[in-house]
UniProtKB/TrEMBL annotation:
Enzyme Commission identifier(s): 2.-.-.-
Keywords (A to Z) from UniProt: Transferase
Domain of life: Bacteria
Pfam families with a match to the protein in the record: CTP_transf_3 (PF02348)
Organism: Bacillus amyloliquefaciens (strain ATCC 23350 / DSM 7 / BCRC 11601 / CCUG 28519 / NBRC 15535 / NRRL B-14393 / F)
Protein name per Swiss-Prot or TrEMBL: Glycosyltransferase
InterPro entries on file: Cytidylyl_trans (IPR003329), Nucleotide-diphossugar_trans (IPR029044)
GO MF, one example: transferase activity
Keyword match tRNA-binding: no
Gene Ontology terms: cellular component: cytosol
Length: 247
C-alpha cells in the first residue's frame, strides 16, 4: 500500500567538498527543491499525506536549511548530525511506515521511474533491503524495511560508521538480511556517469546539463544519460571525480 512508504531525504549544509550544496541553485530551483519535485512524481508519493520528510541535523549550520524547508512547506525533522541512523529512526518512530526510501540531498536528478521500480521490486520480493546499481551515480535511492533501522538504532554498541552510513550494516550482512539488487532498465544502465553533486565539477556539470536539457526540472534520467553519452566535452567535466568510500 502507498501508505506504507516514506521517502526520507537526508540533507545538511555541511559538506567537506562542497559546503552548502543542497541549497545551491540549478536553474530556478535549489538542488533540494529539484529533488523534492522529482520524488513527488513517484507513483508512491501520496500528496494527501505528503509522505516525504527532509531529515537534517540540529546543528546551528542547518538552521538556514530548516528555514528553507519550512518556507516551502516541506516536512522536516532535525536530529543528530553524526548519528544519522538515529535521525532516521526518530522519523520512522513518528510516522511508522513499513518501508523507508532513503535519498540524499545531493542528487538533483533522482529518477521517479527508477524509484517506482525500486519500491515495487522491494515489495514484490519481500526484501529487507533493495538497491538498483548499474545506473549513473545519483539517480536512485535505497529501500529498506523501516523496522530494521529502528532496531539497529536501538543497539547501543553500534560502531560510528554504522551510525553515519544508515544502511551500511544491513548491506554488510547478507547472511542475516534479504538483500535485493535488481537490474536497471537498459535505458538507465550507465554506471560510468556521475549525476550526483559532491564537488564543484559535479555542480558545474549539473548546471550545464540542466541548461542543455531545456531547463526542465522533470526531465527523465534516460534523456540526461543520452545527452551525456552524446557530448564527450560535457561528460568530461566531472569524469575525474572519485566517490568517497561508503557513499
Amino acid at each position: 500500500m502507498m501508505t506504507d512508504i516514506l521517502f526520507i531525504i537526508q540533507a545538511r549544509m555541511g559538506s567537506e567538498r562542497l559546503p552548502g550544496k543542497v541549497l545551491k541553485p540549478i536553474g530556478g530551483y535549489t538542488i533540494l527543491d529539484m529533488i523534492v519535485k522529482r520524488v513527488r512524481q513517484s507513483a508512491y508519493y501520496d500528496q494527501s499525506r505528503d509522505n516525504l520528510i527532509i531529515a537534517t541535523s540540529d546543528n546551528k549550520t542547518d538552521d538556514i536549511l530548516s528555514a528553507h524547508c519550512l518556507s516551502k512547506h516541506y516536512r522536516v525533522h532535525r536530529g543528530s548530525e553524526q548519528r544519522v541512523l538515529d535521525r532516521f529512526a526518530q522519523v520512522i518512530e513518528q510516522v511508522k511506515p513499513a518501508i523507508a526510501v532513503r535519498l540524499t540531498g545531493d542528487n538533483p536528478f533522482v529518477d521517479p521511474s527508477l524509484l517506482d521500480l525500486l519500491i515495487k521490486s522491494h515489495s514484490d520480493q519481500h526484501a529487507d533491503y533493495t538497491y538498483i546499481g548499474g545506473t549513473p551515480l545519483g539517480i536512485g535511492g535505497e529501500a529498506v524495511n523501516a523496522n530494521l533501522l529502528t532496531e539497529l538504532s536501538a543497539a547501543k554498541t553500534l560502531a560510528d560508521k554504522y551510525q553515519e552510513h544508515v544502511t551500511l550494516l544491513i548491506r554488510e550482512s547478507p547472511e542475516k538480511y534479504r538483500l535485493l539488487f535488481p537490474e536497471p532498465p537498459q535505458e538507465l544502465r550507465a554506471p560510468h556517469l556521475r549525476l550526483t553533486v559532491d564537488t564543484e565539477e559535479d555542480y558545474r556539470l549539473a548546471c550545464e546539463l540542466y541548461a542543455k536539457a531545456g531547463a526542465r526540472p522533470d526531465i527523465p534520467a534516460k534523456e540526461l544519460i543520452h545527452l551525456l553519452n552524446s557530448d564527450p566535452e560535457l561528460r568530461a567535466i566531472n569524469q575525474m571525480i572519485r566517490q568517497k568510500e561508503a557513499d
